[in-house]
Design goal:
Length: 281
């Protein structure tokens, strides 16, 4: 029996959406060519331009969710030029010639600055998931810019997913990276108002973890028997021990005293939520 065209399209879209949901959680898989460093190189990458952009456009909010003023940046030719020049400077370097500590700050800042540029270029938009170079992405299937090529470092094309899942996660195996890379969404951990450097990376990672875990978009008790936590802990459960119990253990580590006590005694059900609304003012 021949399937009607409209039914065929519906089936294709349904399967594509299922695949898109499955692809939401990216496996950390090392891109081997980036697994190199020079621990004898004392040089530092200059992130002052990124810090100036953060100073000008990050809006710290009473809600505890940092916002980024994409509209203001887009309207400021000097600001957009500064961001483009900063990203160009990062792409002119080969991070493998730097120490591991320097690379970690480099890739986190690179990811965040590149995300800001992608969103600013597409603005106005109400969610980063509406941004895509592919037709399916623009139709809302496989939405988002994460698999689109937006950079080239040392002659290699790079996507945002390459940076996060092919470099940062597999090389450092540090689950706090999820609190550092920002996906321009309300449900995401805050975009740090401070640029990462070799000297402050560990401090900023810990601060990001504490801020997110102790905010309702990270951990929210509906009642004593029902807990809602960020979908990050479902998508990347492997980075947090692979089980619901290990995720709770991780949350306890960064939770304030009262929240930690409640988490330790929790024996109810867990649900997951995430808000993809753009983190604009």
């Amino acid at each position: 029996m021949t399937m009607k065209p409209c039914l065929r399209i519906a089936v294709i879209l349904f399967v594509a959406m299922l695949l898109a949901v499955a692809a939401q959680a990216q496996t950390a898989k090392l891109i081997p060519e980036w697994d190199a460093s020079d621990e004898n190189n004392p040089a530092h990458v200059d992130h002052r331009a990124w810090q100036e952009i953060l100073n000008d456009y990050v809006r710290e909010h009473d809600s505890g969710v940092n916002r980024f003023d994409y509209a203001a940046l887009k309207a400021n030719a000097e600001g957009t030029a500064k961001l483009a020049t900063y990203l160009k400077s990062l792409q002119s370097l080969d991070p493998r010639t730097y120490s591991r500590a320097e690379q970690k700050a480099y890739w986190i800042n690179f990811y965040n600055a590149l995300t800001v540029k992608v969103v600013t270029d597409a603005y106005p938009v109400d969610s980063i998931k509406k941004i895509s170079k592919s037709l399916l992405g623009r139709l809302g299937v496989f939405g988002g810019p994460w698999d689109d090529v937006y950079a080239n470092v040392a002659g290699r094309d790079l996507t945002l997913n390459n940076i996060e899942h092919g470099i940062l996660r597999p090389i450092w195996k540090d689950n706090r990276i999820h609190y550092a890379v920002n996906c321009a969404s309300y449900g995401c951990p805050n975009l740090s108002a401070t640029a990462f450097t070799t000297e402050n990376t560990e401090k900023l990672l810990d601060a990001g973890a504490r801020a997110y875990v102790n905010h309702p978009r990270g951990v929210d008790f509906v009642d004593d028997d029902f807990l809602v936590i960020s979908s990050i802990y479902k998508w990347y459960a492997a980075d947090f021990g692979g089980t619901e119990k290990s995720v709770i253990t991780h949350l306890v580590k960064y939770a304030d005293k009262a929240l930690a006590a409640r988490l330790r005694s929790f024996a109810g059900s867990v649900d997951y939520e995430y808000d993809w609304s753009l983190n604009r003012p």
